[in-house]
Amino acid sequence: MITVMASAAAVRSTTAVADARDTARAFLEGLQQSAVAPDAADTVVLVVSELVTNALRHGGGRCTLELTAHPDTIEVAVHDPSRHVPRMRTPDLNGGTGGFGWPMVTRLAHATAVTRGASGGKTVSARLAL
């Protein structure tokens, strides 16, 4: 099992999300096992982007990204200080308020989980096939 952790910026910025995507790409490229298929790598990067964006937007403006490689899966975990859990909602097609990310993550992942922290906050995680 290989784990890497990265802190996203304490502000809501596209730079923090881009940095998280770059961290995910570097993590996947650095795995010592057989090469990760390009489609699987793209899926991991997309899920990282969505979870970090949601944590920054709805979770208090800061988060920590944790990536863990298991034999056949990658676990993406994002920790943020908010106790509010992601929820399914009708996507906003006109107002730009979102609603697309969490349904997409749940469709792409083999499993998702939301764990509340003992001292507040939560961790949102997704397991993705290699």
Automatic annotation (TrEMBL):
Key words of the record: ATP-binding, Kinase, Nucleotide-binding, Serine/threonine-protein kinase, Transferase
Any GO molecular function: ATP binding
Record-linked InterPro entries: Anti-sigma-factor_SerPK (IPR050267), HATPase_C_sf (IPR036890), HATPase_dom (IPR003594)
Residue ranges occupied by any Histidine kinase/HSP90-like ATPase domain in the UniProt entry: 18-127
The keyword DNA repair is annotated on this UniProt entry: no
Domain of life, per lineage: Bacteria
SUPFAM superfamilies assigned to the protein according to its UniProt record, in alphabetical order: ATPase domain of HSP90 chaperone/DNA topoisomerase II/histidine kinase (SSF55874)
Listed Pfam families: HATPase_c_2
Protein name: ATP-binding protein
The organism of origin for this protein: Streptomyces variegatus
